[in-house]
Amino acid sequence: MNISRRTVLFGATALSGLLAMDLGGSPASAADDPKTLRLPLARPAGNLDPQRYVGIFAIQDMIFDPLVQYTRGGKIEPALAESWTISEDHKVYTFKLRPDVVFTDGEPWNAEAMKWNLERWMPKADYNWLQVSANLDKIEVIDPMTVAIHFKQVTPTALIEFSYVRPVRFLSPKAVEADGSYKSPIGTGAWKVDSDTPEGTDLVTNEKYWGVKPTLDKVSLVVIPDARSRMSALLAGDIDAAGGAFIAAISPQDATTLKSGGITIVTDTGTDTMILGFNPRRELFKDIRVREAFNLLIDREAICAALMKGYATPTMNLYPDVIAYSGKRFDIPKRDVERAKKLLDEAGWVGEGTRSKDGKPLNVELVISEDAVANSRALGEVLQAEFSEAGIGLTLRNVDHAARHGDIPQFKYDISLFITNGAPYDPYNTIGLMILSSIEPGTDGKLWEDPVVDPLIVKALSASEAERAEAFQAVSTWLHDNWAMAPLYHAQRVWAHGDRIKAFVVPATEYEMPIKGISL
């Protein structure tokens, strides 16, 4: 039987949609509670210590306040710090703390509490992926409500990094054991934990909260690991909404099915990028002609239309334009199999069927992980069909989340799917951690590494505000002109909700619950 690339592309997604229709239950209305919002979690909340990388980001964000708040487009607004100043040499940030704030256990928020929290992580090398940690000189308490943080060098990322969920949020100094180890999730945020079990987590409003009080009394988070079961619960009215990449993700296929079932789908521009990354240490991908050929074999528009059901925008850019300093938009190359074949010929990869060079066949392995990158199998099958037309043999190796985070940093792959960090971490984190070759690869691995581009990255990471746009553009242009990776698309952020919700606002980042702006 003749199976074309487009048959594989559309057939795989159609099958996925049909399977998703088997929801096993008819819609039914749960008893309304006008003050309780019911949301699903794909996994239990986990250890909510704000200095650990274990708990669900969005729950930590509800409990623990930041020093400053990241808002849409990268704007920084006051939070636990009501104001700040930056020294003329840009090495000292002085924060005036918000008065009359207390942790939910009654402990006061003040300079000593801030210093105690920062000293839990800032002096430690494990946190040096953050510039505020790597560049720290000292933390100075000026008065009970004023703290100055001194850096050894200019740290333009400081304010953005102080908005992160972890390890930057603030825990009550009394919420630890005698040895200083974490005991309980006590913060200053709008919410506090009422109950926490493997089956779910309930949060209630913090009556001592310093800011605008939530309109809800309770958020009930129920663990539903299976996406199909979450869809059934939403259609039945047992939960109010679902979504969020790190909460209970909804795939484009699921969104299409839910929409046909009368569920409201709410989307927002995505802040990250799906990228096909080449192993920079493989001899094969050190040849720019090979990297260009792989790029030209990808039909990005078709992938977005069929596989992503229109919930994505094709791209050749490292960042979407909602990320600060994302730069000019590069043209998306049309799929050109003949040009790709010619480039492979020039690189010495020749022959009928699967190409070869010096007796070695052009077979590559794509690492996929549904746990880490949703829909990666379907995307891998599309790429498999597209690459085969130019004589490239592609095999898929499916691994779980833990195995992927072990293999990728050790470069145990040929090609792999990567997702950029998104807001609020970019534009700094992806180039600083996943491309800068002088930094050891973390659990997300390396998108690319080349000492030639390092000076451009270092300049961008340390550039003054006036020079920043040009410096980031130089990095983007180098990566694009050298075909260093294969950007695929910017996925939209997708949430779905039932009729109980009358107003819904997608939060600024994927690290937040959609609490603000909700009306039941």
What does the model show?
It is built from 15 helices and 21 strands. 45% of the residues are buried. With 520 residues, it is of the alpha+beta class. Helices cover 27% and strands 21% of the residues. The strands form six sheets. The protein has a six-stranded mixed sheet. A four-stranded mixed sheet has the order 1-10-9-8, with no helix packed on it. A four-stranded antiparallel sheet has the order 4-5-7-6. Strand 2 and strand 3 form a beta hairpin. The N terminus is likely disordered. It folds into three domains: 118 residues, D-Maltodextrin-Binding Protein, domain 2; 105 residues, Periplasmic binding protein-like II (D-Maltodextrin-Binding Protein, domain 2, 3-Layer(aba) Sandwich), CATH 3.40.190.10; 152 residues, Dipeptide-binding Protein, domain 3.
Keywords summarizing the entry:
alpha+beta, 15 helices, disordered N terminus, Dipeptide-binding Protein, domain 3, 520 residues
Mean of residue pLDDT?
A: 92
- CATH classification class of the largest domain: Alpha Beta
Give the DSSP E fraction (strand runs of 2 or more residues).
15-25%
CATH topology of the largest domain: Dipeptide-binding Protein, domain 3
Largest sheet descriptor: 6 strands, mixed
CATH superfamily of the largest domain: Dipeptide-binding Protein, Domain 3
Tally of strands: 21
CATH architectural label of the largest domain: Roll
Q: Could you give the distance between the termini?
A: 53 Å
Question: With helices defined by DSSP (H or I, 4 residues minimum), what is the helix count?
Answer: 15
What's the number of structural domains?
3
Task: Give the uncertain stretches in residue-range form.
Answer: 1-31
Question: Which structural class do the helices and strands define?
Answer: alpha+beta
Order of strands in the sheet with most strands: 14-20-13-19-17-18
The Rg value, from CA coordinates, equals 24 Å
- Indicate the overall shape: globular
Helix content: 25-40%
